[in-house]
What we know:
Layout: H1 3-12, E1 17-18, E2 24-26, H2 41-56, H3 59-74, E3 78-80, E4 95-100, E5 103-111, H4 144-147, H5 156-163, E6 168-173, E7 182-183, E8 192-196, E9 205-210, H6 220-234, H7 236-239, H8 241-249, E10 251-252, E11 255-260, H9 263-272
Amino acid sequence: MSYEDKMFLKQMDNKFVRDASGSWVAPLPFRVPRQSLPNNRQQALQRAKLLDASLRRNPVKLEHFLTFMSKIFDNNHAEHAPPLKDHEECWYLPLFGVYHLKKPDQIRAVFDSSAKCNGVSLNSVLLTGPVAGCCNNNPHTLNHSTRQFQNLTNDLLGLLIRFRKEMVAVTADIQHMFHCFLVREDHRNYLRFLWHRDKDIDNDLVEYRMRVHVFRNSTSPAVATLGLRKTAQASGKDFGNRVTQFVSRNFYVDDGLTPSTTKEEAINLIKDT
């Protein structure tokens, strides 16, 4: 693995934990050392006003965007941002909307982690993690609990070949996978954004912050994949090795593919998973 991949896993070791509610909580894995982030609120405010004007020109897009943002708040994925302390470092994520070609009636509000201010972006100071698969030639540099997760992305060719082994096959995907994992509270000020108070487009723009890892953060795929495997291993005693193997070996990020010998076996596996 690269030096930065090892750094990512060491930061996650013992810091990616389950809270009292049963949710998995992870920090934002920052590069060490890293450039300090400037306060980009003015840039985010300008982007928010441009988005607002664009949405108001397109009532259909506005309705879709409001629906998506309502789900963010209804699912408790965002919260009101507390006042910042003097000289407290923070970051604001500009928003924009994208449509999926196969879902013209649904829009995704994207938090733009690549937006730069004074030559720096949030993504530029985050560790991506070993999401492309890797091989550690010196496993003694990592402790046991970290070593078991060193290859975070399954080989796609192997996954597809295994998928064809039996007569029955199953596909599955995890809805909003990144949002399944909370951000450590002291890191949430790096995920601040501006949106209309009380989800009403006619209200003023106020400050919120995300409570969960977000789509477009360069580190989110590695965090979510690691969290998924931790979940599967923690549940192995209750649901058996087959579930753990399915989640650990036959998922490519949020997409699962697995073969079974019978329909009944496939149904039971998916229910347990």
